[in-house]
Amino acid sequence: MRTYLPLLAAALLLGACAGQGESTDLRPRSVLTPQQLETTAREATDQLRDTQPLLRERETNSYVRCVADALIRALPGDPGNWRVTVFIDNSPNAFALPGGDIGLTAGLLRVLDNQDRLAAVIAHMIAHQQAGDISARAAEHPLPLGTPVSRETLGVLGVGPSLGTLQPFDAAQEATADQTALQLMGRAGFNPAAAEHAWKALQAERALAAAGNGTTPEILTMHPADHGRLSALASVPPQAIQDFDNRRLRNQRPECGGREPGEYTF
Ligand SMILES: [Zn+2]
Question: Which of 64, 140, 219, 246 keeps 20 to 30 A from 156, CA to CA?
Answer without folding.
Answer: 64
